[in-house]
Write a structure and sequence with these properties.
single chain; 8 helices; seven-stranded parallel beta sheet; about 15% strand; Rossmann fold; alpha/beta
């Protein structure tokens, strides 16, 4: 049996990944603030166990208890593979430095960086004695590699995720029961995050016209397409600590 833990999976890319994983040999736990009843009904029709775990990832004190509950449900003796996909993310606040509220800054760092760090740390602790395959996937962004006005937090947290992933990969190569950790950059997608970006003020996000053009010209990738690329990637031999870009696979 293969177990998957996916954050932010009630919509967008996370929802698409869940659908791509529908298989009678997979058990999926999705961690989000809200559940998706239509997704659960679809999973039942595909004979795939899908379970919802409510959690606001910005409330980082909850994360240890959430992972503890999930691992109590995972039968390590029956498991062949356990995968954690840190998909949840937020682009807000789209503000120049000096214009954002402290609460919004903290929430962004919690969801984009601290949550993946804490969840990965717990995942590695819980799987140290597990002899099957273990994988951590951190969803990243090209914004980690270049500064964009208004995205100081989004870009910086994704850059932090990349370095964290690389470091896990380096450390785990020294272990017998190693965890494979990768980051995956999906490029620009037609999701709610893009809708949020297009409503930003030009005074704080000078690139807004470019992102509106992506939408108008149909240049945004469908989450379903990106999800298939990622799931196909996970079926191949992985390089520990590598930052994968979807452009390499299409």
């Amino acid at each position: 049996m293969n177990y998957y833990i996916i954050t932010g999976a009630s919509r967008g890319l996370g929802e698409a990944i869940v659908k791509e994983l529908f298989d009678i040999n997979n058990v999926i736990y999705y961690v989000s603030r809200t559940n998706n009843l239509a997704l659960e009904e679809l999973a039942a029709s595909k004979h795939t166990p899908l379970y919802f775990e409510e959690c606001d990832l910005s409330e980082v004190h909850q994360l240890g208890n959430v992972m503890k509950k999930l691992f109590l449900k995972i039968d390590l003796k029956q498991a062949n593979k356990i995968t954690l996909i840190n998909n949840a993310g937020m682009v807000d606040p789209i503000k120049n430095v000096g214009n954002a509220d402290a609460e919004d800054i903290i929430a962004n760092v919690h969801v984009n960086l601290l949550a993946p760090v804490l969840l990965s740390d717990y995942f590695i602790k819980e799987t140290k004695e597990f002899t099957g395959q273990t994988v951590i996937v951190n969803i990243t962004s090209g914004a980690a590699n270049r500064p964009t006005a208004g995205w100081s937090l989004y870009g910086s947290t994704k850059a932090g995720v990349n370095m964290f992933t690389k470091t896990i990969g380096l450390e785990q190569e020294e272990h017998e029961n190693k965890v494979m950790a990768i980051a995956f950059s999906p490029g620009i997608m037609d999701t709610d995050m893009q809708s949020t970006i297009r409503t930003a003020g030009k005074e704080d996000f000078s690139s807004i016209d470019q992102f509106k053009e992506y939408h108008e010209k149909g240049l945004l990738r469908a989450p379903e397409f990106v999800a298939k690329v990622l799931v196909d990637l996970l079926a191949t031999p992985l390089e520990n600590g590598r930052i994968y870009d979807i452009k390499e696979w299409i």
